[in-house]
Design a protein that fits this description.
By secondary structure, the chain is of the alpha+beta class. Helices cover 19% and strands 27% of the residues. The chain has helices at 57-68, 85-94, 135-143; strands at residues 20-25, 30-31, 36-37, 47-51, 79-84, 100-105, 114-120, 146-150, 156-160.
């Protein structure tokens, strides 16, 4: 997915707890057998998401597909997972090794609704967590996604509620 800001932009406003964000799910971050995000789909620091606020689901899907899919790449978004910022934060602080998340606006030229899930070591969110998240924490976030299964063209064909 596209990461970061367009040249010269410095947008880092935190999203509100009630805001819903969407994660594109594609191989290897999609498990076709169980039709869920893989346990590692939130493992990387600063995981890309798209804000749902003010957008239709079709617009969200179009932004996510535009970020991930491109000619010559054999990547197809298989599903979109939705979660509230509050749920991400609560899962992080309840984890055995607590992580304090913030979801920050990070618009790009291709996706003005782009944001990133950013992990911190402290509740004040002043010390960024180095390295990847644990697979266990990533799995818990993945299981909390409200899944929308897509056709290759981006049409919703099935919905699967969170598993936790």
């Amino acid at each position: 997915m596209s990461e970061g800001n367009p040249a010269g932009a410095n947008h880092t406003a935190a999203l509100g707890d009630n805001e819903v964000v969407a994660r594109a799910l594609f191989t290897p971050e999609w498990d076709e057998n169980v039709k869920r995000g893989s346990p590692g789909c939130f493992k990387r620091n600063n995981t890309s998401v798209t804000r749902h606020k003010g957008l239709t689901m079709e617009e969200v899907i179009a932004y996510l597909k535009g970020d991930v899919e491109s000619p010559g790449k054999n990547v197809v978004v298989r599903a979109v997972g939705l979660i509230t910022v509050r749920d991400v934060k609560e899962i992080g602080v309840a984890y055995q090794d607590p992580v304090h998340f913030e979801v920050l606006e990070k618009p790009t030229a291709k996706n003005p609704a782009h944001a990133e899930v950013t992990p911190y070591l402290d509740a004040e969110r002043t010390k960024l967590k180095p390295g990847d998240l644990s697979r266990g924490l990533s799995r818990q976030i993945s299981q909390s996604l409200d899944i929308y299964l897509l056709t290759p063209e981006g049409e919703v064909i099935e919905r699967s509620p969170p598993q936790r």
